[in-house]
Amino acid sequence: MISTDTDILATAEAWAREGRSVALATVIETWGSAPRPVGSHLVIDADGHFQGSVSGGCVEGAVVEEAVEVIAQGQPRTLEFGVADETAWKVGLSCGGRIRVYVERISTETVN
Amino acid sequence: MDLATLAVLNTERAARRATILVTDVESGAQRLVKAADLAADSLAEALEKQLRLGKSALVEADGKAFFLTVQAPPPRVIVTGAVHISQAMAPMAQLLDLDLIIVDPRTAFATPERFPGVRLLTDWPDVALASLGLDGYTAFVALTHDPKIDDPALEAALRSDCFYIGALGSRKTHGRRIERLAAAGFDATATQRIHAPIGLDIGAVSPAEIALAILGEIVSTLRGPRRAPA
Predict the structure, then answer these.
(1) How many CB atoms lie within 10 A of CB B159?
(2) Considering only CA atoms, which of B218, B184, B180 is closest in space to residue B79?
(3) Which of A22, B49, B113, B205 has the maximum number of C-beta atoms within 10 A of its C-beta?
(4) Is residue A91 part of a domain?
(5) Pairing assessment for the beta strands B164-167 and B138-142 based on DSSP bridges
(6) pLDDT at residue A2, rounded to an integer
(7) Residues of chain B found within 8 Å of residue A54, distances taken between Cβ atoms
(8) Strands (E), chain B
(9) Do B2 and A29 count as a contact with CB atoms less than 8 A apart?
(10) CA-to-CA distance for B55 and B88, rounded, in angstroms?
(11) Domain ranges, residue A28
(12) Is the ipTM beyond the 0.85 threshold?
């Protein structure tokens, strides 16, 4: 069962070792009643498969899309989601909180 | 993050050693700081604080934003006594994400039938506890009432950094236990670490209620109270 954020990091490593291109998303800041605490992880591969959660389901779709771009480009990026966002109807947090999510690629260049 | 860094992070976690991954959010530059190297790090104060809280956090230093991914080992509970109370504790601990390990050399008690899916050790506690390695992320609970089993385990727990030590028994039983531990060289400061009577005072009667009281006390010790007493 994938229940803890430790399992997500183990999954990220396992996926990368299988040769999949992988990105890791981490909740780095929350305001108000955010659904998942700081430090929560989501692991994503280049095909958009993912495990874990950064918002309990509200914005994962958008994070996965961005993560696929991060995998392709290599540069980490920081995403912000909240009801104040103009796209709130599409990707926003119904709870009224705001979150910042850091998305980075897992680089395998230095590993044999 | 480098796969190599991720691998070290996972290895350290599996070995129950704390680590903090420091990420410069702007540049993406990262470094992994092991608990042993914490004091020498330029962000030592912030790292120590977050490790103590067991929480990841965004911190500011030198006009830069750093995200600290804190990896504290998962808390576990070691219990002596494959008894009725620990039978109730096992499923509750699983729901709480606490790794529960039961030590009881009495093989009639410590059976897989009585404890499905629970890690059982039938070595004597001094052997079992030495192999498990008690650390600051471990709670120890003595439930057998039998000094032959509980005492050596309590002595090992008192010599360790266990974040919680509890022992079942009436005040009278505990009084005699303190006398034995004193004779074994443990002073009052040491024996005061033992929660006895064990568990939160919720008037627990049944084994499941006592299990709840004990786990409640363990969670409270781990997290700390949130509200000031009224």
Answers:
(1) 12
(2) B218
(3) A22
(4) yes
(5) parallel
(6) 42
(7) none
(8) 19-24, 30-34, 57-61, 64-71, 76-80, 99-103, 119-121, 138-142, 164-167, 194-195
(9) no
(10) 29
(11) 5-105
(12) no
Give, in words, the CATH class of B76-223: alpha beta
pLDDT in tens, B139-158: 999 999 899 999 999 999 99
The H-or-E segment that residue A60 falls in is helix A60-73
∠ CA B143-B147-B153, nearest 5°, is 65
Cβ contact A28–B4 (<8 Å): no
Residues A83-96: tens digit of each pLDDT: 545 554 555 566 66
Distance of CA B2 to the CA centre of its chain: 31
DSSP summary character for residue A87: T
Which token pair is B210? 């006592």
Nearest to B67 among A17, A102, A110 (CB): A102
Domain extent listing, chain B: 3-71, 76-223
Q: Is residue A112 part of a domain?
A: no
